[in-house]
Amino acid sequence: MTHRPIDEALRPVREHPAEALWNEPPAPGQVDPAVLSALLQRHGWQRRGGAPGRYGRWTPPGPGGGGTSLLVPESRAFPDSDDLLGEALVALSRSGSPSARDVLVALAVPSDEIRWWRDVPTGPVGAAPWTVEEQLRAAARQMLLAGALATRARAGYYGARHRRSASASLENVLVGAEPGGRRLTAFVPVDTGRPIAVRLHQALYAAREAIDYQRATGGMDAFDAAVEAGVSHELMEALVALVRGTEGARIAVEWAPAAGVPEGGATPAEPVEFSPGDLPVLREAGARYLREEPSVPVRLTGAVVRMRRSGPRGDGTVRLRVIAGAEVPHVRMTLDEEAYRIAGHAHLVGLPVRVHGRLESRGGFRRLTDASGVVPVQVDEAERDRLMKSLQENLDFFEEACSGD
What we know:
- By secondary structure, this protein is of the alpha+beta class.
- 38% of the residues lie in helices and 21% in strands.
- The chain is built from twelve helices and 13 strands.
- The strands form three sheets. A five-stranded antiparallel β-sheet has the order 5-6-4-7-8, sandwiched between helices. The protein has a five-stranded mixed barrel with strand order 9-10-11-13-12.
- β9 and β10 (316-324) form a beta hairpin.
- α8 (233-243) packs antiparallel against α9 (279-292).
- The chain is elongated.
- Residues 1-23 and 394-405 have low confidence and may be disordered.
């Protein structure tokens, strides 16, 4: 049995946009002082005094931070509040600290922050192989996609289903990584991505509980119930990729201060931890989800894009570009001689076809079995012209439809 790796077609999430999003810091009037203070604390800045009830003095994390400080008002109740905010924002924009950039990103695009940590062996002077950062980014991409898939439907295995819309929902996610490849943060915009962050948060806790149950009792039953929380084969693969080759890994979700804690979101959200000892359970659960996800009865409408059969008569294989009926881009199916002829004629005149069948989980829900009831479907002139243009641009269709191989 083969299946498509979860990260095969997923476009990488965008690099940290600290320079691309703005040339100047946000306007003081657009910044809530309480939100700025919460973000500074989240990103490791230390409050070191200040006039109580009026402003706080914040210094950046790490050695050498004592020479820089920000004065951040606690509210807008005092006349100099906007001046202090403006000076603090300019100082952040000029700071070379990665934490300063993270704070500015969170101010510019109110976001829930998803953090990944990997405990990996270090080399000389704390250095790590260049592959370590690649592995972290790949695992994070897989996990975000698993969370996005779980917002579309609940399934133990998605395959190609919902992949296109789930991938599109991640286009506005921003990413910042720390040197060394051991930590990465994804900024998921609240307006478009909060359901993804909430679902992933719930799924990770459910996965942790299911693993603990299996390791305590030997039973896999908890993984069946965990599907409703968003746990899937795709999430298991992402966790395996994250934990493999490490001494342990953690994931945490921090809610955007400007938006508050969502329904179903814990606060404070403690990191969820996974260890190499969890890998056998994760692999077993992933294989179980893949094996047991049932086929789905569907009625598809699609455009014929490829045809092939071994001779001039008999059964043939047809590939459809799905227009409606299933959240997959393409399917293949085997048709008898009459249905194959109908599909060919529909293609030649620029019409899609409608067909009934079962979308098989084997192969990633890319094959339709028991196909029947193939009929052409009328479409508007614009869609028909587009289908005809596609036919003209793919002249090898005639060779494949009529060839003897």
